[in-house]
Structure formats: C-alpha cells, structure tokens
Amino acid sequence: MEKIKFVAPDTQEETEFFVLEETKVSGTRYLFVTEEEEEDCDAYLLKEVAAEDESIVYEMVEEETELTAIGKIFAELLEDTDIRL
Question: Has residue 82 been placed in a domain?
C-alpha cells in the first residue's frame, strides 16, 4: 500500500497517510486515505487542488454534496471496505 507524506503549510507539521484508493472525476484527482494501514480508523477524502514543481497540493473534501458524491464512488471502488459517510 502506498504511503504519502503531507506537510501542513502553516505549521510545517508532517503527517503520513496510507492511500487506499485514488480516482479522477471530471479531471480532478481524489485520494481516499487513512492514518492506519489495517485497523479500523477514520478515513479522509483529499482533492488535488494544485501541482507545483514536484509537490502536489491537496485539500480535504468538506463540501457536503461533493463529499457524498465522491464518497459513493470510493464505496463502489472499495467494495470490501465498510465506508460510512
């Protein structure tokens, strides 16, 4: 499973996430990530908002309509995973 590192722009704090799945919708790349590889835990939907040199900028999907729509896509892609929005 791919593991990626995120750096908070305001605090420079690093967080690592495991990428469970990724997809592209209408030209926008989305990631479904967790902090734990195999345990039950919170998951996050991230949306690519910019690409700068070798860095890619992601934001958490927070808008309810977008979260629901993209969440349904990931639920289909990850059939064996219990996803609750």
Answer: no
From first CA to last CA, the distance across the chain in angstroms is: 23
φ/ψ of residue 72, rounded to 5: -65, -40
Q: What pTM does this model have?
A: 0.82
> What's residue 53's pLDDT?
77
pLDDT averages per 10-residue partition of the chain, 85 residues: 82 90 94 84 89 83 93 86 61
pLDDT of residue 42: 84
Stretch (H or E) spanning 46: strand 43-52
Within a domain: 32:
yes
- What range does the domain containing 38 cover? 2-77
Q: Which of 47, 48, 50, 45 is nearest to 77 (CA)?
A: 45
Residue 24 lies in a domain: yes
Question: Strands, E, within 8-82: which ranges?
Answer: 14-25, 28-34, 43-52, 55-60
How many structural domains is the chain composed of? 1
